[in-house]
Write a structure and sequence with these properties.
Shape: elongated
Strand order of the largest sheet: 16-15-14-13-12-17-18
Radius of gyration: 34 Å
CATH architecture of the largest domain: 3-Layer(aba) Sandwich
Helix content: 25-40%
Oligomer: single chain
Number of helices: 15
Structural class: alpha+beta
CATH topology of the largest domain: Trna Endonuclease, Chain: A, domain 1
Distance between the termini: 81 Å
Length: 597
């Protein structure tokens, strides 16, 4: 291994051939360059215990981003899945001790889909009471791009390669004539002719792209595989039913469109046999398996319909189209698109003789949509999870069925609860927007307060009486010459039923404000804070020095309703609770809560 894990071929850093100290040093240097003049970068020596920090970046507004460096060149799947525990422990330490705004895992390889999902879901493990950070990951592609962005780091790493690079350059320059471009093409073309002559059925195409040599095995004609078959055999050392093993199996059995990448350490007994042209292929450092779609498949572009079945009846339908078909040993994979390409289904359907059931992966994207459109899309996504059965019709003919009643894992249930939360908030916000006439895109994030304010606003629009966190108390103005009547004494010292004009009700939701109309605050046991002190001052003829605030009995909030000139509408008002899962209701258990007001 040379300095920085470089190889002479292409003179590129081989991230998989470093060690932890060199990896840390390179990444730390890149981060120092990236944030120079922008933020403060703190490099932590972990020998004394880093409490979940390798590199901490602090912006002028006190936003903190923690980078956790893990030298896992083999990844975190298969035999190396135990490394996920290390990553989670580091995340929990950072969340507990430092509460960063963002936490980034840095590793020297690109992540599989399963690994990326594991990292992103770490945010759900944030300890209670701690700030929930945004979680992301940085792999080989991002590190390579940083080296391109900051070439001075790359040059620093290549000092001991300069002499050898110069020798190669001089040798190649001496071998060319003055017409360099033509001579280069001639030399490469001649080499291609030599390769083509080796086999009548197969050949190697080759290219040099940014210092990397790419060789592609190509059939010279359609019958090459029949005339001169090439076999690739290998054994995988993957943990049974691990995410990597499932992805690999799906790619082989159903032709999954997902690229499957296996580290060389997970591949054994690798052998390519057949034509002499493939002899000498070495053990791979990385094995990439990708199923190509069937060209000109008749089903592509055809109408696809989802039927959501509940209690034996069609509850709803959605129409879309087939976008691709892949075949495997056990069945085929269909890619489908719905809702303007915002909802995608990847459906694995077994061949008729296979006992395997149909399985389905769901993808969706609500970014940039209005709350109404986001709610409609999420309603379809939830229907795919909660219906008794999903039926897929291709051009009016039943293609497959999917039973939704299978056993759900804890992760599945958590994911479903998150989708329900987002859907309910989007639906509430859509009703508020429809009432006010305002427009906005669905926010990328929202808080518990946003959920409560949107639900309260929706219930108010629906003619309900609702406890509102925005109505905690009202200031009362009282002049020193006010007549001290028995009624005023009672107001200042006793609890009483009150309907208080609260002015325009403005709901703050996701950084925006929505005016719903004139509102009235109600409570049957309202009282005046500092009322006794005010009464004493009035009796003495003194000025009232303490602020008088109307409070909602022993409850944290007043109940609020929107004013209406319609008598029948006012008579139909009822107190409604929020009904938001996992958010505690604000009022005490009182008999009058069930009565109309």
């Amino acid at each position: 291994m040379t300095m920085g894990g470089r190889e002479a071929d292409g003179d590129k850093i081989q991230w998989s051939r470093l060690n932890q100290p060199w990896f840390d040093r390179i990444v730390e240097t890149l981060l120092l360059r990236k944030f120079r003049g922008v933020a403060t970068v703190d490099i932590v020596d972990g020998r004394g215990g880093d409490e979940g920090i390798d590199v901490a970046v602090t912006y002028p507004d006190d936003t903190v981003v923690i980078y956790q460096l893990k030298y896992f060149p083999e990844g975190m799947s298969g035999n190396f899945s135990g490394r996920r525990r290390q990553v989670k422990d580091s995340f929990l330490q950072a969340a507990n001790h430092h509460e960063p705004h963002k936490w980034v895992l840095v590793a020297p390889r690109n992540y599989t889909n399963a690994e990326k999902s594991f990292v992103l879901e770490l945010a759900d493990a944030t300890p209670e009471g701690k700030r929930r950070p945004i979680v992301s990951c940085m792999g080989q592609a991002e590190l390579d791009q940083m080296l391109i962005d900051y070439p001075e780091v790359d040059r620093w790493l290549t000092l001991d390669h300069y002499r050898r690079g110069r020798q190669i350059f001089e040798q190649e320059r001496a071998a060319f004539l003055e017409t360099v471009a033509r001579d280069l093409a001639d030399r490469v073309g001649s080499l291609g002719d030599v390769v083509d002559a080796r086999d009548p059925d197969w050949t190697w195409d080759f290219a040099r792209d940014r210092g990397t040599m790419i060789q592609t095995l190509r059939a010279k004609h359609d019958n090459a595989a029949q005339r001169s078959p090439i076999s690739i055999r290998f054994t995988t050392a993957l943990e049974t039913d691990s995410p990597a093993e499932r992805e690999f199996r799906q790619s082989i059995e159903y032709g999954s469109p997902t690229r499957v990448e296996l580290p060389g350490t997970a591949v054994t007994d690798f052998d390519v046999s057949g034509s002499p042209i493939v002899q000498g292929i070495p053990e791979p450092d990385r094995l990439v398996i990708e199923s190509l779609p069937i060209e000109a498949a008749p089903a592509v572009g055809m109408l696809m319909e989802i039927r959501f079945i509940q209690d034996g009846e069609v509850a709803a339908t959605r129409e879309g189209s087939v976008t691709g078909i892949h075949h495997g040993t056990h069945g085929f994979t269909s890619m489908m698109s719905f809702c303007g390409n915002r909802l995608t289904l990847t459906v694995r359907t077994p061949y008729q003789q296979s006992p395997d059931p149909t399985s389905m992966d769901i993808g969706y994207d609500i970014s940039g949509l209005s709350p109404r459109a986001a709610a409609d899309l999420l309603q379809a996504v939830l229907g795919l999870h909660l219906s008794d059965e999903i039926q897929l019709y291709l051009d009016g003919h039943l293609m497959s069925r999917y039973n939704c009643s299978g056993d759900a894992t804890d992760s599945d249930r958590s994911d479903l609860e998150e989708k329900l939360t987002i859907y309910r908030f989007a639906d509430d916000l859509a009703k508020v927007i429809a009432h006010t006439g305002q427009g906005m895109t669905f926010p990328g994030s929202f808080s518990v307060n946003d959920q409560v304010n949107a639900r309260v606003a929706r219930l108010l629009i629906g003619n309900h009486i609702v406890a509102s966190p925005l109505a905690r108390g009202f200031k009362i103005g009282l002049s020193t010459d006010a007549a001290l009547t028995p009624q005023l004494r009672g107001i200042l010292t006793q609890r009483h039923r009150i309907h208080w004009p609260a002015g325009t009700y403005t709901a703050p939701i996701a950084g925006r404000e929505f005016e719903l109309g004139q509102a009235t605050a109600f409570h049957p046991e309202a009282w005046v804070q500092n009322g006794t002190l005010a009464l004493t001052a009035l009796e003495k003829g003194d000025a009232i020095s303490d602020e008088l605030i109307l409070r909602p009995g022993d409850d944290p909030y007043f109940f609020v309703y929107l004013q209406s000139d319609e008598t029948a509408k006012a008579a139909d008002r009822r107190i409604a609770n929020w009904g938001i899962d996992d958010i505690e209701e604000p009022w005490l258990d009182r008999p009058w809560l069930t009565q109309s007001q």
